[in-house]
Design goal:
- By secondary structure, the chain is an alpha/beta fold.
- It has one domain: Rossmann fold.
- Helices cover about 35% and strands about 15% of the residues.
- The chain contains nine helices and ten strands.
- The strands form two sheets. Strands 1-10-9-6-2-3-5 form a seven-stranded parallel sheet. Strands 4-8-7 form a three-stranded antiparallel sheet.
- The structure holds 2-amino-2-deoxy-6-O-phosphono-alpha-D-glucopyranose.
- The site of 2-amino-2-deoxy-6-O-phosphono-alpha-D-glucopyranose (GLP) has 13 residues, from loops.
Length: about 270
């Protein structure tokens, strides 16, 4: 896992947006996996800015969202489809037919997950999956105890998540108890994952994800098994990481390598390298 610690949440959003924008430029037909919640909001705002100011082109990009509340339709202001429209899709040149959010009102819930995954496969799989993290360490709605091999399916929300998300619904009893969510196993099939986290309420989850054991009790920890994960976190979310200095060292070395400043890394060119 590559870990980048930014001074604040704005730094996280700008850094993560660059990663997404580079992919969109390099592969205009890319498939993005999208997340909802407060964490990716700044990243979406930056993508919107890049679309307006720099012509970042989403016309051939396809997207798949991680999850949706069961029972909520696209016009429900709390639905994740509504969130995506208001916070990203309505402001960029994406073709809405290329955007997918699980259908919270699908009646065939037992087979719906398979259908959703077929759509992802038919699109060639997800190139980059954007992820937030719940305070209990969940990704998408894969609550603690979710199988690390789980697929897209129906999932009951944990009480901690209901509490966390009550702020959007006004009260806890208004929060739907069920979701359709991509599974941990489905997420691990993405070619690359980009996890963003900010604020003190995420510090424990981030420590457990990056430095704890791989466990179904912290489903984000399964990302340790993935070959290409980038975690961008702010100082507050990184507060409990023990190897923070090492992550900074890795980033410094990375920068020096990119800039060709090899001597600063203790590498001196040999005569036969010329
Ligand atoms: C929900 C979503 C997750 C998200 C999490 C954290 O549970 N299903 O995808 O990562 O909330 O949300 P926030 O970024 O608002 O803290």
């Amino acid at each position: 896992m590559r870990v980048i610690v930014q001074p604040n949440s704005e730094g996280v959003s700008l850094c993560a947006a660059k990663v997404v924008a580079n992919l969109v430029r390099d592969k205009p037909t890319c498939v993005l996996g999208l997340a909802t919640g407060t964490s990716p909001l700044g990243l979406y705002q930056e993508l919107i800015r890049m679309h307006h100011d720099e012509g970042l082109d989403f016309s051939r990009v396809r997207t798949f969202n991680l999850d949706e509340y069961v029972g909520l339709g696209p016009n429900d202001e709390q639905s994740y489809r509504y969130f995506m429209q208001k916070n990203l899709f309505d402001h960029i040149n994406i073709d809405v037919r290329n955007t997918h959010v699980p259908d919270g009102r699908a009646l065939n819930l037992s087979t719906y997950g398979e259908q959703y995954e077929k759509l992802i496969n038919d699109a060639g799989g997800i190139d980059l999956q954007i992820l937030g993290i719940g305070s209990d360490g969940h990704i998408a709605f894969n609550e603690p105890g979710s199988s690390l091999g789980s697929r897209t399916r129906l999932k009951t929300l944990a009480s901690e998540t209901v509490r966390d998300n009550a702020r959007f619904f006004g009260s806890e009893d208004r929060v739907p108890r069920l979701s359709i969510t991509m599974g941990v196993g489905s997420i691990l099939e993405s070619r690359r994952c980009l996890l963003v986290a900010m604020g003190p309420s995420k510090a424990r989850a981030i420590r457990d994800t990056i430095e704890g054991p791989v466990t179904a009790q912290v489903t984000a920890s399964a990302l340790q098994l993935h070959r290409d994960v980038l975690c961008v976190v702010d100082e507050e979310a990184a507060r409990l990481l023990e190897r923070r200095d090492y992550y900074r060292e890795v980033e410094r070395a990375q920068t020096l390598l990119q800039e060709g400043r090899l001597s600063e890394l203790g590498v001196s060119p040999q005569p036969n390298d010329q």
